[in-house]
Each structure stands twice: as C-alpha cells, then as structure tokens.
C-alpha cells in the first residue's frame, strides 16, 4: 500500500506499508529553487547522491507531492530507504545568494540554518533520536541550524523532548561541521544559563558552572572567582552598591584564556553584565514579566560562553573575560534613590534610579579591565529597555569609539547572521549624565527616557580610556519569540556566535 497524503500541518508525507521504527535514524536533505523555473528544484550534492541510490524515487516523489519546496518549507517521506525510516526534505531557497547589503548578512547561510533547523525539529517531533544532516553546501551553517534548532530548555520538567543526536551526512567538510557544532553549543550554553531560574543560577552557581565547562581546557585557562572581600579591596563601590540589597554574595568572575603561542600578545578583554536577577531594587520593576529578569546576566552568559567556545576551538588568541555577578534586590540594606557611591576610578555617581544598575557593575569592571592593557575592550549587557524600543530583536546595538573595532564586529556578524548595528556616542548624551546635582555623574540621563540607550553608553564611556572599546547593548535580542526561525521561543543566547567569530577574526588580524 502506498499513498501520498497531506499532513495537518500542510506538509506532504509519503507512506509505505513497511515495518519501521520512528525512534531510530532520520535524514535531512536540502533542495534549492531552480533559477527561472517557478516549480523547479535543484537537489544538493548529498540529496542527488541519495536520489541516485533510489533510482530517482526522491525526485519523483518531490514532483508528485505538490508545489516546489520554497525556502523554509519541508516534507517528510517515510519508508523510502532501508537505513532511514524518515527523510525530511527542506527548501533552501535560491542557490548562492551570498551576502545581502540590505540585510547585512549572508542570505545563503541564514537559509541553510533555518531550513536544517526546521527539518531536524520535524524529525524530533516524530521521536527520531539520531539524524544525519546534509551539509547543503555549507557544513558549518548546517551544523549551527541543527544544534540551535534542537535546543530546548526542559531540564526541570518531568516529561522531556526526545533527545536527538546529529551528524554530518556523507563525506562533506567535517571540519566545518565540527566548527559549526562548537559555535552552536556555545550559544546553547548561554541559553541554558539565561533560561535557568534565578534560584538555580545564583552568582556562585553561575561561576561554578563556567568553571566546570572550562575544566577540559585547564591547560589554557585560568579561573579566579573573586569574593566580596576582594571586591571591597579593589574599592569597587559602584558594584557593591548594587549587590548590597541581596542575601546572595557577589562574585567577580575572572577568566584568562591563553590561546596564543605569543605570550606577549595583548589580550582581547570581554566584560559581561552579570545580574543574575534584577528586581529593580528600591526602584522596583512592575510584576508582569519580571520573571524574565533571570536573564539579566545575558551579557556575562554570552561572554563566558564565547570563551568556553574559544577554548574548545583552540583559537590562537588571548582573551580575558570579566563578569561582575550579583543580584539587584530591595531590602533594608539596598541602595536608595539619591544615594551617592564611588567607583573604582574615584568618580562619584548619584544613583537616582536603582534599576539602572547594569552600568554601575560594568563601570568598576571596565576600570579593573584596563589594568591588563588589552588590545580591545568589548562589554556586553542587557542594559536598557530603550535599546529594545530602538532596534527590537533585529540586531545588537553597538556603541564604540573605534572604527576599526566596529568593522571587525560588523564583519563577524555578517557571517553569523546575528547582526549588529552602530549607534551614536555623541557628546550630546555625555552632557546628560555629567550634568549632575550631587556627584560627578548621574546613573540616568537628564531627560530620563529620551535616548536612554545612548545616555547609558555615554555613562560607560566615562570609565573607558582605551582607544578601542565597544559597548554591546543586547536587551533587544535577549529573548526570542519567533523572529529567529532556528531558535525556539525563550532566551536566545545572542550574540555568542558573533563574539566567537569576532575573536577568531582577531587571531588573523594585525
């Protein structure tokens, strides 16, 4: 008995009356749209080879099962091959589209990520537990799509999704596949940290998790988990002012990855905001969606995950990562609006809004980071709701004093598809934070809501003397609903892959 039926999701499924187990092997293959033919398809190299072993059956089924597969669409065929009970065929769009100047990404790579992700999820829903994946012309992008698409945070649920392992189908570029897996696993680590409840990922638990992940790379990595007494010795008054309201002790996590054979190579410094839960402090946030503030340590998560990835890939570059970790909570000890605190560099700060705490912990971390004479400084933070208003989830906002650094970050983001967009650092915004009644600086802009992302960046610049510094505001890309098709709903882990690609680029840039 053979028939071709439309599923409830609108996909065509080929059914064969054969004995098979859906919890064994699955296969994802890609097809391109054929140029100039509305309903034409062009099989990838792997798909064409598979079709040949079936004497053209796959091509025949694709023709009779409905209109040509457009980009992102998929079909599943059952029982057409003895080794693969389930075969998902996914539409890759047009072949060799390449970099799109308007979209600021490589469209072909994005299409592959989206298509492979859709195919792998489809097989996961069918409880297939091992999937071979077509390289689709770019094994790294295929691996990223597979690993990112299959990630699902269900660690605390009794009923879990089917665990799926993936591997490259055929003899394509296995090195690129493994690189893609490493990139995706890095982002998934950041997603894991950001998604976990705040009572599971405290400052101490965060630091311990990163230490565990870096364990296999101990010969290249030094880890320092600095205690509150060390933070006090460093006179990090701004950082301490945020942590005061919580019963959880703060931790200043310091990571050194020594990947360059040249021990004198100046390091790249990555600094991540590590607020493991942000209630707003005395300037309390409204209750709706406050639970999402478990991910306010997204900056620290992406920075630390990128260093774990760099170590796994053995990138020939030196990186120092700093993560000031604490909670921002209201209590009798908490900082009050109007209080004045002193940062590590001696500047005084009037704290008019305790919910603008990220810039305070970053200020002291940036001051400390300068002692390493870094080649470049990049800080990452879920800093302002204003950034979400400005760019939404389309791109990370970048504020930088360096055209060279901007070019490196932008180039990396085009490759990863996790885009960045340059924002202004005008003196116009600096004046709004330096015009302060009681102290050298105010932690909010003079006109409050106006240009909030820009005044926050201007505040941070007051703690930077290095010629190559960039501030990445990731508030808008912190979570995903359905904007990025190859990420499920939840915390996104963005822009971990862009940070890794950026660091890899620095290894080859003079």
From TrEMBL:
What's its catalytic activity?
Answer: Release of N-terminal proline from a peptide; Release of an N-terminal amino acid, Xaa-|-Yaa-, in which Xaa is preferably Leu, but may be other amino acids including Pro although not Arg or Lys, and Yaa may be Pro. Amino acid amides and methyl esters are also readily hydrolyzed, but rates on arylamides are exceedingly low; S-benzyl-L-cysteinylglycine + H2O = S-benzyl-L-cysteine + glycine; an S-substituted L-cysteinylglycine + H2O = an S-substituted L-cysteine + glycine
* Cofactor(s) named in the record: Mn(2+); Zn(2+)
Looking up InterPro entries in the UniProt record yields: Leucine_aapep/pepB, Macro_dom-like, Peptidase_M17_C, Peptidase_M17_leu_NH2_pept, Peptidase_M17_N
Q: What is its EC number?
A: 3.4.11.1, 3.4.11.5, 3.4.13.23
Q: Where in the cell is it found?
A: Cytoplasm
Q: Name one GO cellular component term.
A: cytoplasm
Q: What are the record keywords, sorted?
A: Aminopeptidase, Cytoplasm, Hydrolase, Magnesium, Manganese, Metal-binding, Protease, Zinc
Name the protein family: Belongs to the peptidase M17 family.
Q: What does this protein do?
A: Cytosolic metallopeptidase that catalyzes the removal of unsubstituted N-terminal hydrophobic amino acids from various peptides. The presence of Zn(2+) ions is essential for the peptidase activity, and the association with other cofactors can modulate the substrate spectificity of the enzyme. For instance, in the presence of Mn(2+), it displays a specific Cys-Gly hydrolyzing activity of Cys-Gly-S-conjugates. Involved in the metabolism of glutathione and in the degradation of glutathione S-conjugates, which may play a role in the control of the cell redox status.
Per its record, how is this protein called by name?
Cytosol aminopeptidase
């Amino acid at each position: 008995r053979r028939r071709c039926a439309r599923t409830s999701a609108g996909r065509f499924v080929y059914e064969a009356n054969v004995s098979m187990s859906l919890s064994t092997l699955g296969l994802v293959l890609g097809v391109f749209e054929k140029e100039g033919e509305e309903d034409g398809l062009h099989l990838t190299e792997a798909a064409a080879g598979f079709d040949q072993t079936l004497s053209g059956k796959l091509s025949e089924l694709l023709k009779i099962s409905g209109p040509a597969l457009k980009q992102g669409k998929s079909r599943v065929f059952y029982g057409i091959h003895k080794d693969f009970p389930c075969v998902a065929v996914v539409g890759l769009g047009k072949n060799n589209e390449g970099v799109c100047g308007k979209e600021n990404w490589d469209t072909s790579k994005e299409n592959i990520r989206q298509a492979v992700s859709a195919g792998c999820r489809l097989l996961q829903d069918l409880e297939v537990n091992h999937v071979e994946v077509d390289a689709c012309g770019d094994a790294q992008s295929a691996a990223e799509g597979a690993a990112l698409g299959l990630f699902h945070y269900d660690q605390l649920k009794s009923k879990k999704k089917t665990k799926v392992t993936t591997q490259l189908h055929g003899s394509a570029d296995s090195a690129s596949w493994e690189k893609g897996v490493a990139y995706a696993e890095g982002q998934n680590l950041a997603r894991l940290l950001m998604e976990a409840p705040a009572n599971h990922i405290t400052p101490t638990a965060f630091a311990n998790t990163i230490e565990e992940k870096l364990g296999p790379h101990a010969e290249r990595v030094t880890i320092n988990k600095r205690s509150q007494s060390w933070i006090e010795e460093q006179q990090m008054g701004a950082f301490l002012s945020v942590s005061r309201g919580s019963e959880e002790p703060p931790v200043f996590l310091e990571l050194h990855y020594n990947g360059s054979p040249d021990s004198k190579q100046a390091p790249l410094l990555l600094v991540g905001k590590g607020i493991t839960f942000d209630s707003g402090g005395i300037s309390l946030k409204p209750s709706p969606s406050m639970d999402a503030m478990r991910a306010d340590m997204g900056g620290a998560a992406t920075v630390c995950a990128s260093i774990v990835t760099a170590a796994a890939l053995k990138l020939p570059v030196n990186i120092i990562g700093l993560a000031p970790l604490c909670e921002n909570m209201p209590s009798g000890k908490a900082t009050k609006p109007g209080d004045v605190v002193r940062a590590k560099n001696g500047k005084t700060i009037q704290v008019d809004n305790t919910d603008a705490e990220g810039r305070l912990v970053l200020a002291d971390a940036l001051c400390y980071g300068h002692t390493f004479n870094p080649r470049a400084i990049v800080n990452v933070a879920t800093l302002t709701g204003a950034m979400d208003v400005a760019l939404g989830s389309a791109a990370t906002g970048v504020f930088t004093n360096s055209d060279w650094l901007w070019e490196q970050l932008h180039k990396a983001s085009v490759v990863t598809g996790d885009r960045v967009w340059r924002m202004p650092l005008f003196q116009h915004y600096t004046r709004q934070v330096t015009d302060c009644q009681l102290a050298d600086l105010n932690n909010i802009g003079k006109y409050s809501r106006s240009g909030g992302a820009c005044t926050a960046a201007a505040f941070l610049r007051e703690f930077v003397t290095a010629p190559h510094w960039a501030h990445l505001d990731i508030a808008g890309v912190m979570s995903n609903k359905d904007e990025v098709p190859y990420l499920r709903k939840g915390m996104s882990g963005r822009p971990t892959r862009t940070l890794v690609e950026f660091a890899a680029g620095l290894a080859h840039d003079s």
